[in-house]
Amino acid sequence: MKRTIPTALIAVSATALALSGCSSSADSAETDGVSIVASTNVYGDIAAAIAGDAADVTSIIDSSVQDPHSYEASAQDRLAVSKADIVIQNGGGYDGFIDSLLGDADPIVLNASEISGLMPEAEGHEHEHEGEHDEDGAHGHEGHNHIEGFNEHVWYSLDAMNHVAEHLAEELSELDPDNASTFEDNYDEFSAELESAHESLHELGESATGASVLITEPVPLYLLEDAGLVNETPAEFSEAVEEGTDVPAAVIQEMLELVQSGDIAMLAYNEQTSGPITEEVKDAAESAGVPVVSFSETLPDGEGYVSWMTANIEALSEVFTA
């Protein structure tokens, strides 16, 4: 995750300049500027894009090999959160480890699920700041307690991330008024890049709208739906895979029959949480000539958020505009 250093430190020494590389919760250093901690590198990248050199950004999940579902926070993570001015979490039960880290800390907490406009209003009052989860209607494993009926993977919605970036720019401007114009300019640039990606998504929709697809998990579902694609996956299948529970044999058979039906245009495959059942479905799709497009939950190494989403859209375009 790219780390940024406050402008006031840049002139201090060459050593300070060297600190502007990558940052994780394990090696974050104190600065005089705004400190932002993000639950994953997705939000860390967005934060770095908006804050520029005026903040220090730390991502707790900062590698594609780390699984947010089962992540166990460290003492170093707790220290980083305790010193943060702003904490960005996905919310919706996705990154519950943030709740345990907040403790007595009192940063500004940006909950992406609540900001997104995608969460049912009745659930929007869940304030991760309090470190509480409603056990009724929430279930999962390894701390992954998602809200029933809500797809918490909101970072696959370009509109949702635009809202997050806008809120972040506003909070940064209040904390650091001297750099308010920079935050606004950075947000405008980020928003324009998102709009360009959105235009590509709309172009894709002209040829993809109405096409039936299957998913192994609902990770990329917002992006697929925004392209006009129709998810035909049995709900029991994707829910069981996401929650790490056994998929009923009848549901597996239903999924395999759909793959082989000739009516499915694509399989969306979560490459970060594959297992024997999803591998079986993937193999069946490849055997049936159904294109398989892989998606990840966290930012791939070396990618930025916009370039990552653009690459995902391009991968979909290869299927539907070939």
Automatic annotation (TrEMBL):
Q: Which UniProt keywords apply?
A: Metal-binding, Signal, Transport
**Organism encoding this protein:** Paramicrobacterium agarici
Q: Name one Pfam family in it.
A: ZnuA
Q: Name the domain of life.
A: Bacteria
State the name under which the record lists this protein: Zinc/manganese transport system substrate-binding protein
Q: State where composition is biased (Basic and acidic residues).
A: 122-141
Segment forming the signal sequence: 1-18
Q: Which PANTHER family match?
A: HIGH-AFFINITY ZINC UPTAKE SYSTEM PROTEIN ZNUA-RELATED (PTHR42953), METAL-BINDING PROTEIN HI_0362-RELATED (PTHR42953:SF1)
Give positions of region: Disordered: 121-141
Per UniProt, subcellular location reads as:
Cell envelope
Q: What is one Gene Ontology biological process annotated in the Swiss-Prot or TrEMBL record?
A: metal ion transport
PROSITE patterns (UniProt xref): PROKAR_LIPOPROTEIN (PS51257)
Mind listing the GO molecular function terms for this protein?
metal ion binding
Q: Name one GO cellular component term.
A: cell envelope
